[in-house]
């Protein structure tokens, strides 16, 4: 389970990240990320700051499958992001959107897609350490 401080819960925050952030798509998921200082015109309550911890939200639509499948995908993604949370730069907001192929994917495959997307967004370095640059 993700700590409460690491969860993205407000719909305004999801909308901000998806609209103003960068994205990296893979076969099974799309990762949207908004780094601290990336969106200066954003609402002060929702905009990430360098002092805040990274926060993560998940979108698993009905296109992925029935409720049991969607919840399984959500649990796997939540577990994978919990392990990667410490690697993300402070103040980063991340939304992970599952695509229909995620329903049949193993945790290992989802983890590989997640790692590739985070590297493409330059949120983690190739060796897994956090990067503060863009």
From TrEMBL:
Reactions catalysed, semicolon-separated, are: Endonucleolytic cleavage of RNA, removing 5'-extranucleotides from tRNA precursor
Q: What is the lineage of its organism?
A: Bacteria, Bacillati, Actinomycetota, Actinomycetes, Pseudonocardiales
Keyword terms, alphabetized: Endonuclease, Hydrolase, Nuclease, RNA-binding, tRNA processing
**NCBIfam families (UniProt xref):** rnpA
**Single GO molecular function:** ribonuclease P activity
Cite the InterPro entries for this sequence. Ribosomal_Su5_D2-typ_SF, Ribsml_uS5_D2-typ_fold_subgr, RNase_P
Gene3D superfamilies xrefs: 3.30.230.10
Q: Which PANTHER family match?
A: RIBONUCLEASE P PROTEIN COMPONENT (PTHR33992)
Q: Which organism is it from?
A: Saccharopolyspora rosea
Function noted in UniProt? RNaseP catalyzes the removal of the 5'-leader sequence from pre-tRNA to produce the mature 5'-terminus. It can also cleave other RNA substrates such as 4.5S RNA. The protein component plays an auxiliary but essential role in vivo by binding to the 5'-leader sequence and broadening the substrate specificity of the ribozyme.
- Give the record's subunit note: Consists of a catalytic RNA component (M1 or rnpB) and a protein subunit.
EC number annotated for this UniProt entry:
3.1.26.5
> Would you indicate the residue range of the signal peptide?
none
Q: What is this protein called?
A: Ribonuclease P protein component
Assigned protein family: Belongs to the RnpA family.
